[in-house]
Design brief:
The chain has about 180 residues and is an alpha+beta fold. The protein has a domain of about 120 residues: 3-Layer(aba) Sandwich (Aminopeptidase). It has a 7-stranded mixed beta sheet with strand order 1-2-3-4-5-7-6, with helices on both faces. Helix 1 packs across helix 3. It starts with a strand and ends in a 14-residue tail after the last strand.
Length: about 180
């Protein structure tokens, strides 16, 4: 899966981000901070935030030189400043190719090795088994369930929490390639 790379979003990405993000099947797995429907204006606002934020480290996911999604580390503050939440989405045309797993591995490595994070966590809706598998394959460990912690599309859901700690990092963390 060496065909997956991360790079900073660029203003020229606005149309493809809007095209990929304006998909209810993508949005159904994300927090409501992401608007739906999703417009080019929304993409412009997002890209501006992504390139100027000090606390959020956000990247475009490229697969074979095509923008396939977005991934970010959302830094915490105060006593939680050595922790970040990882969030990601992949455009539907790129689903089921191992792209998310590779992107999560790349950004996790970056967060631990270059941002000096000691903990990265993710929250996943109970029905999103695909994202749960992505995190497990990327080396994240299941921590527990917060019952009835989320409401999405008018449905109350459980929040599945996964984490990656700096002591999980090994020299061969990025290898072997994702299965």
């Amino acid at each position: 899966m060496g065909n997956v790379t991360l790079r900073k979003p660029d203003p020229a990405d606005n149309h493809i981000i809007a095209e990929l993000a304006n998909n209810k099947r993508v949005w159904d797995n994300l927090t409501d901070i992401m608007p739906h429907p999703y417009s080019v204006a929304d993409a412009n606002t997002f890209i501006n935030m992504a390139v100027t934020s000090e606390i959020h480290k956000i990247f475009a996911i490229e697969y074979r030189n095509n923008l396939a999604g977005i991934i970010g580390l959302h830094g915490q503050t105060g006593v939680f400043r050595l922790t970040a939440e990882i969030g990601y989405w992949i455009g539907e045309p790129y689903w089921n190719r191992g792209i998310a797993t590779r992107a999560v591995r790349l950004l996790t490595h970056y967060g631990i090795k270059h941002l000096d994070l000691v903990r990265i966590y993710a929250s996943v809706y109970d029905f999103n088994k695909t994202s749960q598998r992505v995190l497990e394959k990327a080396g994240y460990r299941f921590e527990g369930v917060a019952k009835k912690a989320i409401i999405k599309n008018g449905v109350i859901l459980d929040d599945y929490r996964y984490s990656f700690l700096d002591d999980y990092m090994t020299d061969n963390y990025l290898m072997p390639e994702d299965s």
